[in-house]
Amino acid sequence: MKRARLLVIALLLLAGLPMQSAQAQTGPAQQPAVGQRGKDVIWLPTALELVDRMLDMAKVTKDDFVIDLGSGDGRVVITAAQRGVRSHGIEYDANLVLLSKENAAKAGVADKATFAKADIFESDFSSATVLTLFLLPELNLRLRPIILGLKPGTRVVSNTFTMGDWEADESAAVDAVQSCQYWCMAYLWIVPAKVEGAWQMGGGGGRLTLRQGYQVVTGALEAGGKSEVISGGRMKGAEFSFRVGGATYRGRLNGSKIEGFVTTGDASRPWVATRIGS
Ligand SMILES: C[S@@+](CC[C@H](N)C(=O)[O-])C[C@H]1O[C@@H](n2cnc3c(N)ncnc32)[C@H](O)[C@@H]1O
Predict the structure, then answer these.
(1) What is d(CA 62, CA 74) in angstroms, rounded to the nearest whole number?
(2) Which residues are 68's β-sheet partners?
(3) CA 209 from centre of chain
(4) Helix (H, G, I), strand (E, B), or coil: what is residue 128?
(5) What is the number of the ligand 1 atom nearest to the C-alpha of 32?
(6) Could you tell me the pTM of the whole model?
(7) Strand 185-190 and strand 197-201: pairing?
(8) What is the pLDDT along the chain (278 residues), one digit of tens a residue?
(9) Which terminus of the chain, N or C, has fewer Cβ atoms within 10 Å?
(10) Are the beta carbons of 100 and 88 closer than 8 angstroms?
(11) Could you identify the atom of ligand 1 that is nearest to the CA of residue 159?
């Protein structure tokens, strides 16, 4: 008798499973209302003109992986996928996730545009090479330490909201006449490699001591018994450039080495530096 009851329960559970998963997968999704509540921020769609501008600013290519944090109806992810780029949306609202999947299927890009129902603050988005956001200033600030730990060179594009004292590398507005009425500003940041520390220049070129505030680098080059302050120090991903004593140094940081070329007037020669302290 007990065994028979268990068997009935097991059969009922098994019968319910496909129904539940079918319910979770089938639409149609409900149309969202602009301004509807979200977990940490309401849903507002980015104007399609700005979506294009954001992807252009990030210079997305087919080698990129775009992740939209709080992906709403999926428009950023789907637009990227229509450009042939693999893309993924993380969205807390299950109905918006369903709608995004329907929209991706209608646009014929379901193979390239994927969506997950998840909390962005509990998700791993470190595989992104391009990250897009339309959140809030305080949410950007909560994400900032994680974003700064992403692979150097990762591009981050935000609709309207900035990153506190981490200044954008670039910004652009879409004109109201191009049918973007509100929230029409895009900001781009490129995650800088960490260059702060002490570096020994090759060929007896001296010692470079660097301080770093996001992508801005200051410091001095000590060589031949004198110290000269560097100017224009900047990281663009892993690309480092600065000027000192009439020479312009450009190089690429790779692990504990920087390698590149130094130009003085018309002359150019290779330079290398090795990290000797953090
Ligand atoms: C302003 S909308 C932007 C939608 C879309 N990225 C766009 O640009 O059109 C913000 C989205 O974030 C979602 N959201 C809010 N808090 C979230 C969280 N903690 N995790 C995932 N999604 C969240 C909301 O449901 C909403 O769809």
Answers:
(1) 19
(2) 89, 132
(3) 29
(4) coil
(5) 27
(6) 0.89
(7) unpaired
(8) 344 444 433 333 333 333 333 345 466 999 999 999 999 999 999 999 999 999 999 999 999 999 999 999 999 999 999 999 999 999 999 999 999 999 999 999 999 999 999 999 999 999 999 999 999 999 999 999 999 999 999 999 999 999 999 999 999 998 766 668 889 999 999 999 999 999 999 988 899 999 999 999 999 999 999 999 999 999 999 999 999 999 999 999 999 999 999 999 999 999 999 999 99
(9) N
(10) no
(11) 8
180 CA distance to ligand 1 centroid (A)? 19
Domain boundaries, the chain: 48-190, 197-277
Residue of 55, 79, 134 with the most ligand 1 atoms within 8 Å of its CB, for mutation = 134
Q: How far is the CA of 59 from the centre of ligand 1 (A)?
A: 23
Superfamily per CATH, domain 197-277: Calycin beta-barrel core domain (2.40.128.20)
Within 6 Å (CB) of ligand 1, which residues are found? 38-41, 43-46, 68, 70-72, 75-76, 90-93, 96, 119-121, 134, 159
pLDDT at residue 204, rounded to an integer: 87
Residue 75 CA: nearest ligand 1 atom is 9
Strand order from edge to edge, sheet including 113-117: 113-117, 86-91, 65-69, 130-133, 155-159, 185-190, 170-173
Tell me which architecture the domain covering 48-190 has in CATH: 3-Layer(aba) Sandwich (3.40)
- Ligand 1 atom index nearest CA of 96: 27
Instruction: Give the model's pLDDT for residue 17.
Output: 35
Q: Using CA positions, which residue lies closest to atom 27 of ligand 1?
A: 72
CA of 214 to the centre of ligand 1 (A): 26
CA of 79 to the centre of ligand 1 (A): 16
